[in-house]
Amino acid sequence: MTDFDFNSLLRANPEAANCAATIRQQPEHFQVDEQLPFSPSGEGGHVMLQIRKTGSNTDWIAGKLAEFAGVEEVAIGYAGLKDRHAVTTQWFTVKVEGIQEPDWSQFLADGCEIVTLTRHNKKLKRGVLSGNHFQLLLTNLQGEKAVWEQSLKRIATAGVPNYFAEQRFGRQMANLARAEAWFSSGRKPKKRQQKSMILSAARSWLFNQCVSARIQQNNWQHWLQGDVMQLNGTGSVFVPEAGETDIESRLASFDIHPTGPLWGRGRPMCQAECQVLEQEALADWQSWQQGLEQAGLKQERRALRVKPEAMNWEFNDDGLCVRFFLPSGSYATAVLRELAEVTDASQSERNSDAGDVSQ
Fold first, then answer.
1. Is residue 157 part of a domain?
2. What is the average pLDDT score of the chain?
3. What DSSP line would sit under 99-111, residue for residue?
4. Domain range spanning residue 301?
5. Residue 353 belongs to some domain of the structure
6. Region 232-236 average pLDDT
7. How far apart are CA 83 and CA 56, in angstroms?
8. 141 exposed, middle or buried (CB, 10 Å; 0-12, 13-18, 19+)?
Protein backbone atom coordinates (compact mmCIF):
# COMPACT_ATOMS: atom_id res chain seq x y z
CA MET A 1 0.00 0.00 0.00
CA THR A 2 1.36 3.40 -0.95
CA ASP A 3 2.21 5.67 1.97
CA PHE A 4 0.51 9.02 1.32
CA ASP A 5 2.54 11.57 3.26
CA PHE A 6 1.42 15.16 2.86
CA ASN A 7 4.67 16.31 4.43
CA SER A 8 6.54 14.89 1.42
CA LEU A 9 5.25 17.86 -0.59
CA LEU A 10 7.89 20.58 -0.62
CA ARG A 11 7.40 24.01 0.90
CA ALA A 12 8.46 27.08 -1.04
CA ASN A 13 9.47 28.88 2.16
CA PRO A 14 12.27 27.07 4.03
CA GLU A 15 11.88 29.41 7.03
CA ALA A 16 8.51 27.83 7.84
CA ALA A 17 10.34 24.95 9.48
CA ASN A 18 11.82 27.37 12.06
CA CYS A 19 8.45 28.45 13.46
CA ALA A 20 5.53 26.57 15.03
CA ALA A 21 2.03 27.37 16.26
CA THR A 22 -1.39 25.95 17.03
CA ILE A 23 -4.62 26.72 15.18
CA ARG A 24 -8.26 26.06 16.19
CA GLN A 25 -7.78 25.77 19.93
CA GLN A 26 -11.24 27.26 19.85
CA PRO A 27 -13.66 27.50 16.88
CA GLU A 28 -13.51 31.31 16.92
CA HIS A 29 -9.78 31.09 16.19
CA PHE A 30 -10.73 30.08 12.62
CA GLN A 31 -13.29 32.47 11.13
CA VAL A 32 -14.48 32.29 7.53
CA ASP A 33 -16.87 34.64 5.74
CA GLU A 34 -18.11 33.61 2.32
CA GLN A 35 -18.20 36.09 -0.56
CA LEU A 36 -20.56 35.53 -3.50
CA PRO A 37 -19.99 37.02 -6.98
CA PHE A 38 -23.47 38.61 -6.98
CA SER A 39 -25.99 40.28 -4.69
CA PRO A 40 -29.36 38.64 -3.91
CA SER A 41 -32.07 39.89 -6.25
CA GLY A 42 -34.45 40.58 -3.35
CA GLU A 43 -37.29 38.74 -5.09
CA GLY A 44 -38.13 35.33 -6.52
CA GLY A 45 -39.12 31.86 -5.45
CA HIS A 46 -36.13 31.15 -3.23
CA VAL A 47 -35.57 32.38 0.29
CA MET A 48 -31.92 33.36 0.65
CA LEU A 49 -30.37 33.07 4.09
CA GLN A 50 -26.98 34.17 5.30
CA ILE A 51 -26.18 31.96 8.28
CA ARG A 52 -23.40 32.19 10.82
CA LYS A 53 -22.61 28.83 12.37
CA THR A 54 -20.27 27.35 14.97
CA GLY A 55 -19.65 23.65 15.48
CA SER A 56 -21.70 22.36 12.54
CA ASN A 57 -20.98 21.56 8.92
CA THR A 58 -22.75 22.70 5.77
CA ASP A 59 -24.62 19.49 4.98
CA TRP A 60 -26.04 19.35 8.51
CA ILE A 61 -27.36 22.91 8.21
CA ALA A 62 -28.85 22.12 4.79
CA GLY A 63 -30.70 19.18 6.33
CA LYS A 64 -32.03 21.31 9.18
CA LEU A 65 -33.26 23.97 6.71
CA ALA A 66 -35.04 21.34 4.61
CA GLU A 67 -36.65 19.82 7.69
CA PHE A 68 -37.82 23.21 8.96
CA ALA A 69 -39.24 24.30 5.60
CA GLY A 70 -40.83 20.91 4.91
CA VAL A 71 -39.00 20.43 1.61
CA GLU A 72 -36.63 17.84 0.16
CA GLU A 73 -32.93 18.53 0.57
CA VAL A 74 -32.65 19.02 -3.20
CA ALA A 75 -34.55 22.30 -2.65
CA ILE A 76 -31.61 23.64 -0.61
CA GLY A 77 -28.76 25.40 -2.37
CA TYR A 78 -25.32 26.50 -1.22
CA ALA A 79 -22.11 27.51 -2.96
CA GLY A 80 -19.43 25.74 -0.95
CA LEU A 81 -18.67 23.53 2.02
CA LYS A 82 -17.57 25.12 5.29
CA ASP A 83 -15.71 23.43 8.11
CA ARG A 84 -17.40 22.39 11.31
CA HIS A 85 -14.41 23.38 13.44
CA ALA A 86 -14.72 27.10 12.81
CA VAL A 87 -17.02 30.10 12.96
CA THR A 88 -18.28 30.48 9.40
CA THR A 89 -20.76 32.66 7.56
CA GLN A 90 -22.30 31.38 4.33
CA TRP A 91 -25.38 31.68 2.13
CA PHE A 92 -28.15 29.14 1.55
CA THR A 93 -31.21 29.22 -0.69
CA VAL A 94 -34.49 27.40 0.04
CA LYS A 95 -37.02 26.91 -2.75
CA VAL A 96 -40.41 27.90 -1.33
CA GLU A 97 -42.47 28.08 -4.50
CA GLY A 98 -45.73 26.19 -4.04
CA ILE A 99 -45.42 25.79 -0.27
CA GLN A 100 -46.42 27.81 2.74
CA GLU A 101 -43.30 29.64 3.78
CA PRO A 102 -42.33 29.05 7.42
CA ASP A 103 -41.66 31.74 10.00
CA TRP A 104 -37.88 31.96 9.77
CA SER A 105 -37.64 33.73 13.10
CA GLN A 106 -38.54 30.34 14.62
CA PHE A 107 -35.68 28.49 12.95
CA LEU A 108 -33.49 26.94 15.63
CA ALA A 109 -30.28 24.94 15.18
CA ASP A 110 -27.47 24.61 17.66
CA GLY A 111 -24.71 27.12 17.10
CA CYS A 112 -26.50 28.83 14.19
CA GLU A 113 -28.07 32.21 13.60
CA ILE A 114 -29.67 33.82 10.56
CA VAL A 115 -27.72 37.00 9.81
CA THR A 116 -29.58 38.08 6.66
CA LEU A 117 -32.96 37.05 5.23
CA THR A 118 -33.86 37.99 1.66
CA ARG A 119 -35.11 36.46 -1.61
CA HIS A 120 -33.50 35.33 -4.84
CA ASN A 121 -34.74 34.10 -8.21
CA LYS A 122 -32.39 31.12 -8.53
CA LYS A 123 -31.08 28.24 -6.50
CA LEU A 124 -27.56 28.84 -5.22
CA LYS A 125 -25.36 26.28 -6.96
CA ARG A 126 -22.11 24.65 -5.89
CA GLY A 127 -19.04 26.54 -7.01
CA VAL A 128 -20.80 29.87 -7.53
CA LEU A 129 -18.45 31.56 -5.12
CA SER A 130 -15.89 34.37 -5.38
CA GLY A 131 -13.95 33.20 -2.35
CA ASN A 132 -13.62 33.49 1.40
CA HIS A 133 -12.39 36.04 3.91
CA PHE A 134 -10.34 34.46 6.70
CA GLN A 135 -9.46 35.68 10.17
CA LEU A 136 -7.17 33.21 11.91
CA LEU A 137 -5.63 33.28 15.36
CA LEU A 138 -2.47 31.25 15.81
CA THR A 139 -1.51 30.47 19.41
CA ASN A 140 1.46 28.88 21.19
CA LEU A 141 3.88 30.67 18.87
CA GLN A 142 7.42 29.34 18.69
CA GLY A 143 10.30 30.91 16.77
CA GLU A 144 11.80 34.36 16.47
CA LYS A 145 9.43 37.20 15.72
CA ALA A 146 11.75 38.46 12.97
CA VAL A 147 11.40 35.11 11.17
CA TRP A 148 7.63 35.22 11.50
CA GLU A 149 7.60 38.73 10.04
CA GLN A 150 9.85 37.71 7.18
CA SER A 151 7.59 34.80 6.26
CA LEU A 152 4.42 36.88 6.52
CA LYS A 153 5.87 39.52 4.19
CA ARG A 154 7.02 36.85 1.77
CA ILE A 155 3.54 35.33 1.60
CA ALA A 156 1.89 38.73 1.16
CA THR A 157 4.15 39.68 -1.74
CA ALA A 158 5.04 36.37 -3.43
CA GLY A 159 2.03 34.18 -2.66
CA VAL A 160 2.10 30.47 -1.83
CA PRO A 161 1.92 27.16 -3.70
CA ASN A 162 -1.72 26.50 -4.52
CA TYR A 163 -1.73 23.01 -2.98
CA PHE A 164 -4.92 21.13 -2.36
CA ALA A 165 -4.78 20.92 1.43
CA GLU A 166 -4.94 17.78 3.56
CA GLN A 167 -8.68 18.02 4.20
CA ARG A 168 -9.18 17.39 0.47
CA PHE A 169 -8.06 13.80 0.96
CA GLY A 170 -10.21 12.65 3.87
CA ARG A 171 -9.22 11.64 7.35
CA GLN A 172 -5.74 10.17 7.45
CA MET A 173 -5.62 10.49 3.63
CA ALA A 174 -8.18 7.67 3.40
CA ASN A 175 -9.61 8.72 0.03
CA LEU A 176 -6.19 8.27 -1.55
CA ALA A 177 -6.00 4.72 -0.20
CA ARG A 178 -9.45 4.13 -1.69
CA ALA A 179 -8.26 5.52 -5.03
CA GLU A 180 -5.27 3.15 -4.99
CA ALA A 181 -7.58 0.21 -4.31
CA TRP A 182 -9.95 1.26 -7.11
CA PHE A 183 -7.29 1.88 -9.75
CA SER A 184 -5.27 -1.25 -8.94
CA SER A 185 -8.23 -3.63 -8.84
CA GLY A 186 -10.65 -1.97 -11.26
CA ARG A 187 -13.46 -2.32 -8.71
CA LYS A 188 -15.07 1.08 -8.36
CA PRO A 189 -17.35 2.14 -5.48
CA LYS A 190 -21.08 1.80 -6.04
CA LYS A 191 -22.16 5.10 -4.52
CA ARG A 192 -21.93 8.09 -6.82
CA GLN A 193 -20.94 10.54 -4.08
CA GLN A 194 -18.13 8.29 -2.88
CA LYS A 195 -16.82 7.87 -6.42
CA SER A 196 -16.81 11.64 -6.88
CA MET A 197 -14.87 12.23 -3.64
CA ILE A 198 -12.27 9.60 -4.49
CA LEU A 199 -11.74 10.87 -8.03
CA SER A 200 -11.43 14.44 -6.76
CA ALA A 201 -8.87 13.38 -4.16
CA ALA A 202 -6.82 11.39 -6.69
CA ARG A 203 -6.78 14.23 -9.20
CA SER A 204 -5.78 16.70 -6.51
CA TRP A 205 -2.93 14.46 -5.34
CA LEU A 206 -1.47 14.29 -8.83
CA PHE A 207 -1.68 18.06 -9.13
CA ASN A 208 0.16 18.41 -5.83
CA GLN A 209 2.95 16.15 -7.12
CA CYS A 210 3.48 18.54 -10.02
CA VAL A 211 3.49 21.60 -7.75
CA SER A 212 6.11 19.97 -5.53
CA ALA A 213 8.24 19.11 -8.57
CA ARG A 214 8.10 22.73 -9.75
CA ILE A 215 9.15 23.94 -6.29
CA GLN A 216 12.06 21.49 -6.31
CA GLN A 217 13.23 22.95 -9.63
CA ASN A 218 12.58 26.50 -8.38
CA ASN A 219 10.35 27.41 -11.30
CA TRP A 220 6.86 27.36 -9.77
CA GLN A 221 6.72 31.16 -10.02
CA HIS A 222 8.29 31.41 -13.49
CA TRP A 223 7.64 30.61 -17.12
CA LEU A 224 8.78 27.22 -18.34
CA GLN A 225 8.83 26.49 -22.05
CA GLY A 226 5.48 24.94 -22.98
CA ASP A 227 3.70 26.26 -19.86
CA VAL A 228 -0.04 26.79 -19.87
CA MET A 229 -0.88 30.13 -18.23
CA GLN A 230 -4.06 31.09 -16.39
CA LEU A 231 -5.37 34.63 -16.40
CA ASN A 232 -5.72 35.83 -12.81
CA GLY A 233 -9.24 35.73 -11.42
CA THR A 234 -10.59 33.59 -14.26
CA GLY A 235 -10.55 30.03 -15.50
CA SER A 236 -9.15 31.18 -18.86
CA VAL A 237 -5.93 29.43 -19.89
CA PHE A 238 -3.58 29.88 -22.83
CA VAL A 239 -0.18 28.81 -24.14
CA PRO A 240 1.99 31.89 -24.77
CA GLU A 241 3.03 32.30 -28.37
CA ALA A 242 6.67 32.10 -29.35
CA GLY A 243 8.39 35.44 -29.07
CA GLU A 244 6.17 36.93 -26.37
CA THR A 245 8.42 39.10 -24.23
CA ASP A 246 6.15 40.19 -21.39
CA ILE A 247 5.44 36.78 -19.81
CA GLU A 248 7.81 37.20 -16.85
CA SER A 249 6.61 40.75 -16.15
CA ARG A 250 2.99 39.57 -16.20
CA LEU A 251 3.93 36.74 -13.84
CA ALA A 252 5.68 39.19 -11.51
CA SER A 253 2.55 41.36 -11.35
CA PHE A 254 0.31 38.30 -10.78
CA ASP A 255 -1.65 39.07 -13.93
CA ILE A 256 -1.12 35.45 -15.00
CA HIS A 257 -0.05 32.20 -13.30
CA PRO A 258 1.70 29.01 -14.40
CA THR A 259 -0.60 25.99 -14.13
CA GLY A 260 -0.49 22.31 -13.32
CA PRO A 261 -2.65 19.43 -14.54
CA LEU A 262 -6.01 18.28 -13.28
CA TRP A 263 -5.75 14.92 -14.96
CA GLY A 264 -8.28 13.45 -17.34
CA ARG A 265 -8.90 12.39 -20.92
CA GLY A 266 -7.34 14.16 -23.86
CA ARG A 267 -3.87 15.36 -24.79
CA PRO A 268 -2.04 17.34 -22.12
CA MET A 269 -2.33 21.07 -22.74
CA CYS A 270 1.30 21.75 -21.85
CA GLN A 271 4.22 21.20 -24.19
CA ALA A 272 8.00 21.00 -24.35
CA GLU A 273 9.87 21.38 -21.02
CA CYS A 274 6.69 21.70 -18.99
CA GLN A 275 5.30 18.47 -20.41
CA VAL A 276 8.54 16.61 -19.68
CA LEU A 277 8.55 17.87 -16.08
CA GLU A 278 4.96 16.77 -15.50
CA GLN A 279 5.57 13.37 -17.09
CA GLU A 280 8.52 12.82 -14.76
CA ALA A 281 6.56 14.02 -11.71
CA LEU A 282 3.75 11.56 -12.50
CA ALA A 283 5.86 8.65 -13.73
CA ASP A 284 4.90 6.54 -10.71
CA TRP A 285 1.20 7.37 -11.05
CA GLN A 286 0.33 6.03 -14.50
CA SER A 287 -2.38 3.68 -13.18
CA TRP A 288 -4.01 6.70 -11.51
CA GLN A 289 -3.85 8.69 -14.73
CA GLN A 290 -5.49 5.80 -16.58
CA GLY A 291 -8.11 5.44 -13.85
CA LEU A 292 -9.05 9.10 -14.05
CA GLU A 293 -9.27 8.92 -17.83
CA GLN A 294 -11.45 5.79 -17.69
CA ALA A 295 -13.74 7.56 -15.20
CA GLY A 296 -14.46 10.14 -17.90
CA LEU A 297 -12.73 13.20 -16.46
CA LYS A 298 -11.25 15.66 -18.94
CA GLN A 299 -7.92 17.46 -18.90
CA GLU A 300 -8.06 20.78 -17.04
CA ARG A 301 -5.52 23.14 -15.48
CA ARG A 302 -5.17 24.86 -12.10
CA ALA A 303 -2.91 27.74 -11.07
CA LEU A 304 0.28 26.61 -9.34
CA ARG A 305 0.18 29.53 -6.94
CA VAL A 306 -2.21 31.82 -5.14
CA LYS A 307 -1.62 35.21 -3.59
CA PRO A 308 -3.70 36.07 -0.50
CA GLU A 309 -5.46 39.40 -1.01
CA ALA A 310 -5.80 42.20 1.54
CA MET A 311 -3.44 40.34 3.84
CA ASN A 312 -2.63 41.90 7.21
CA TRP A 313 -1.54 40.66 10.62
CA GLU A 314 -0.89 41.66 14.17
CA PHE A 315 0.83 40.08 17.15
CA ASN A 316 -1.09 40.35 20.41
CA ASP A 317 -1.23 38.76 23.86
CA ASP A 318 -3.10 35.73 22.46
CA GLY A 319 -0.74 35.06 19.57
CA LEU A 320 -0.80 36.07 15.90
CA CYS A 321 -3.98 37.22 14.13
CA VAL A 322 -3.82 36.92 10.33
CA ARG A 323 -6.48 38.15 7.89
CA PHE A 324 -6.70 37.60 4.13
CA PHE A 325 -8.99 36.74 1.23
CA LEU A 326 -8.58 33.67 -0.98
CA PRO A 327 -10.39 32.89 -4.23
CA SER A 328 -12.68 29.89 -4.40
CA GLY A 329 -10.83 26.58 -4.48
CA SER A 330 -7.78 27.71 -2.52
CA TYR A 331 -7.05 26.72 1.07
CA ALA A 332 -6.14 28.78 4.11
CA THR A 333 -4.23 25.80 5.47
CA ALA A 334 -1.99 25.92 2.39
CA VAL A 335 -1.14 29.49 3.38
CA LEU A 336 -0.41 28.49 6.97
CA ARG A 337 1.86 25.68 5.76
CA GLU A 338 4.20 28.30 4.25
CA LEU A 339 4.23 30.22 7.51
CA ALA A 340 5.07 27.63 10.17
CA GLU A 341 4.69 24.08 11.39
CA VAL A 342 1.04 24.44 12.42
CA THR A 343 -0.72 21.93 14.65
CA ASP A 344 -4.51 21.71 14.25
CA ALA A 345 -5.92 21.37 17.78
CA SER A 346 -9.21 20.05 16.39
CA GLN A 347 -7.55 17.16 14.54
CA SER A 348 -8.09 14.57 17.27
CA GLU A 349 -11.79 15.34 17.20
CA ARG A 350 -11.83 15.21 13.40
CA ASN A 351 -10.40 11.72 13.38
CA SER A 352 -13.44 10.46 15.28
CA ASP A 353 -16.04 12.81 13.81
CA ALA A 354 -18.01 11.54 10.82
CA GLY A 355 -19.53 14.96 10.21
CA ASP A 356 -16.37 16.82 9.30
CA VAL A 357 -15.99 18.29 5.81
CA SER A 358 -13.44 20.42 4.07
CA GLN A 359 -13.77 24.10 3.38
1. no
2. 92
3. SPPP-GGG---TT
4. 162-306
5. no
6. 90
7. 8
8. middle
In sequence order, what are the residues at sequence separation of 6 or more whose Cβ sits closer than 8 angstroms to the Cβ of residue 133? 32, 33, 35, 323, 324, 325
Of 129, 128, 151, 127, the closest CA to residue 138 belongs to 151
Residue 110 has pLDDT above 50, yes or no: yes
Q: Which of 64, 97, 120 is the last residue of a domain?
A: 120
Residues 172 and 277 in one domain: yes
Of 207, 306, 217, 324, the closest CA to residue 257 belongs to 306
pTM of this prediction exceeds 0.85? yes
Distance CA 305, CA 330 (A): 9
Cβ contact 120:59 at 8 Å:
no
Q: Are residues 190 and 94 in the same domain?
A: no
Cα within 13 Å of Cα(105), Cβ side: 0
| 27-56 pLDDT, tens digit each | 999 999 999 999 999 999 999 999 999 988
Residue 219 and residue 243: Cα distance in Å, rounded? 20
Number of folded domains that form the chain? 2
Does 153 reside within a domain?
no
CB 276 within 8 A of CB 249: no
Distance CA(50)–CA(3), nearest Å, equals 41
Cβ neighbours of residue 64 under 8 Å, at least 6 residues apart? 107, 109, 112
Average of pLDDT values for 350-356?
38
Are 169 and 296 part of one and the same domain?
A: yes
Q: Which of 3, 5, 59, 83 is catalytic?
A: 83
User: Which residues are within 8 A (CB) of 217 and not within 5 positions of it... i.e. 6 or more apart?
Assistant: 277
Assign 323 a pLDDT band (cuts: 50, 70, 90). very high
Q: Are residues 221 and 301 in the same domain?
A: yes
Residue 317 belongs to a domain: no
pLDDT digits (tens, 9 = 90+) for 145-202: 999 999 999 999 999 999 999 989 988 899 999 999 999 998 888 888 899 999 999 9
Same domain, 301 and 175: yes
Q: Strand 112-120 and strand 160-161: pairing? A: unpaired
- Please indicate whether residue 83 is annotated as part of the active site: yes
